[in-house]
Design brief:
Blueprint: E1 12-15, E2 18-21, E3 27-33, H1 48-60, E4 65-69, H2 81-98, E5 102-106, H3 110-119, E6 123-126, H4 135-142, E7 145-149, H5 167-184, E8 192-195, H6 204-212, H7 215-218, E9 225-226, H8 232-238, H9 246-258, E10 263-266, H10 269-282
Parallel strand pairs: 3-4, 3-10, 4-5, 5-6, 6-7, 7-8, 9-10
Antiparallel strand pairs: 1-2
């Protein structure tokens, strides 16, 4: 089946204050981490003014969406819910007042999700896939969108080596079950986005296979988010340090789009937006900004 058609059962989505037609549109989500120990930027946007400025600049650079996180997924010191709220809510409030960009908050706690929604977040990006038993109820009552992501066990914890008999089938089964859990709690299906969770409790071979077979996730029939930017599966595939993974990130991003992903969580906004718009142009979803090359008659001199 065609993953372009299956990118979403309902083609046009109103997310926050913007409309997206995923039959011919790709949304670029900028990563903004208000953490001192973030995976990629190592605290560059930890200060409140830096985080807000980064969100606004991402929107100016063409991002459709900003994803604000207060606690990294990987192992590390525990951050209280109160501290996480103090990190993300002021950023959400300030950005919502500055731009109509879609705002999501990356959290696995229902308490933090509620505070983020109250501050103006339109999406909760739950990397635990509704691990908090109260999360689905918060989403259902608020009417916001939710990203349900595959991971294994709670974030921030040391875990055993990743093992799957068939990573794609197991991720797919997890996502289908969690979508059913969300809808049973009252979350409308059209408010759900799914993410296979590249590198989250998976090794490089798992993430490569998820990328290669992403159409098997897309055929669930919900919008698919691909968070591949600067991940370790790219670094290990190419032997590149984090600052040198842009080319690999863009290649993986395009592979995911070809297999049905329509929301791309990326660090380098300008390059990712250019790549996304180029894919849209090649697919015939978007007209060139201008048309001049070989369009004028040749004059013999």
């Amino acid at each position: 089946m065609d993953p372009y058609v299956l990118a979403a059962e309902r083609t046009v989505h109103r997310i926050g204050r913007r409309d997206f037609d995923f039959s011919h549109q790709i949304a670029v989500m900028a990563v903004i981490n208000r953490t001192p120990d973030s995976f990629f930027d190592q605290g560059a946007t930890f200060a409140l003014d830096s985080a807000v400025a980064a969100c606004v600049q991402a929107a100016r650079n063409g991002a459709d969406w900003v994803d604000i996180g207060g606690v990294p997924f990987g192992r590390g010191p525990i951050v209280s819910a109160e501290e996480e709220i103090d990190r993300v809510a002021p950023v959400v409030r300030a950005v919502a007042a500055e731009t109509d960009v879609v705002i999501s908050v990356d959290t696995n706690r229902a308490e933090v999700a509620q505070a983020a929604i109250d501050a103006g977040a339109a999406v909760i990006n739950d990397t635990s896939g509704l691990g908090d038993p109260d999360m689905a109820d918060v989403i259902a009552r608020s009417g916001v969108h939710v990203v349900i992501t595959h991971s294994v066990g709670p974030p921030r914890m040391e875990k055993p080596a990743a093992r799957f008999d068939d990573v794609v089938n197991e991720v797919r089964e997890f996502l289908v079950e969690r979508v059913d859990r969300a809808t049973a709690a009252g979350v409308p299906r059209e408010k759900i986005i799914i993410d296979p969770g590249h590198d989250l409790d998976k090794n490089t071979l798992h993430s490569l296979e998820l990328t290669r077979r992403l159409d098997e996730i897309s055929d669930i029939g919900l919008p698919v988010l691909a968070a591949v930017s600067n991940k370790d599966f790219i670094g290990e595939s190419l032997e590149r340090a984090k600052p040198d993974r842009l080319a690999g990130s863009l290649a993986a991003m395009v592979m995911c789009v070809e297999r049905g992903a329509r929301i791309l969580r990326m660090h380098d906004v300008a390059a990712s937006v250019d790549a996304a718009r180029m894919v849209e142009s090649v697919m015939g979803w978007r007209k060139p900004v201008r048309l001049e090359h070989n369009t004028h008659p040749t004059h013999n001199v």
